[in-house]
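sorry for the late reply, my laptop died twice this morning and i had to redo everyting from scratch. anyway the thing you sent over, i finally got around to it. pasting the sequence first so we're on the same page, its 426 residues, then the predicted structure underneath. double check i copied it right bc i was rushing
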Amino acid sequence: MKRIAIVIPRYGEAINGGAEAHARLLAEHLAEEFEVEVLTSCARDYTDWAMRFPPGPCRVGGIRVWRFPHPPRNDLGRARVPLRHKLRFKLRHLLRWLPGPRVARPRGEPAYDGLTFLRRQGPHCVDLFEHLRGAAPHYDAVIFFAALYELTALGIQHWGRRSILVPLLHDEKPIYLPVFHQVMRSAGAILFNTDAERRLAARLYGLDTSKAGVAGLGISTRRPGAGVVQAVLGRFGLAPGYMIYVGRIEVAKGCRELVEAFLELARTDPKARLVMVGQGVMQVPSHPQIVVTGYLAESDRDALVAAAGALVIPSRYESLSMVLLEALSLHTPVIANGHCEVLADHVRLSGAGVVYRRRRGLVAAMRSMMSLPAPERERMGALGAAYVERQYSWPRVMGIFAAAIAQVSALPPDPVDAQAWPSTTS
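ok and here's the structure:
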């Protein structure tokens, strides 16, 4: 049985985040065919990287997990993207008219290339790097999740060809750091979540992504029974047809724009309701037409999504959006931010929702979905469920990962340069 390691900045059943849930579900499915270990930090929350879990081995959902210590956020200094790379991000739509990649090439300077940013952003797990450095005989392949973090960006460069990168790219400022040219070219195999993400990587780094795989994640959500749905609706005093948001409630996810747009709608529609499910990072104003549930068990969350008029995803930065795919599998239409190419692709390919680009468009989309005739809602629901079954079934996803593992594990390990790894005293 091949031994596989998965490197991810945070890991745990109660950790709220799409990348973390993606890695956990993948680990649990891979464990049916491989011997799997997870290498991660001791943090629960990315906002402070405080060590909430003890270092060392443990088990999560039957998977062996190794947690490594690290300093708290900002202990090494504030993480800032250099101005020249911020400008490239701001001017990215103009750069498309110029030849070559949109991201500047690295110079070998830590601050310019982005190594300083990655270290300060966290988590900075020197002991995890030491573990990987001595693990060449131990693992047949290592799967690195989320290119944006130091664990992946440095770990994959030094681990080398027997690696699989799941980059989870978003079109955001830090991805314009030059170091990611090296990160994206160090993997033995790259598995993107969507074609939109693959196109983004080609634009940013001048990569030939034609041979890269698009795996995504298996979605196995099933529609809850009518009795379960009615019980959950009764608990929150809701009737079907409301708008729903699921995920971290924070400005970075577009929640402020969502709340402002809904309040504008509520001024003219007293029957409108917005349900927000998830951990709150930003303050949501108290309003009789807004219901904030906090974190819910999956069964309760799925019941609320199934009874919604539409799921709203206001984020501009998604590489897959599990919550969108889960909503579609529950036959619930979606309203998605059209600035996110991934979300726009899902809506276009499924035919199960609408996109918007400005707050006025979001207000109009919510108003339209709340008045959608039942036959049209059912048609959209059927289209969405068929799209998920076609593109995001576990057998399809596992076949792609198994092929990538076979490919990279057949390669000889790269020679280890001990001087290139972060120092244990840094």
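The first helix runs from residue 18 to 30.
thats about all i looked at so far, will dig more tmrw
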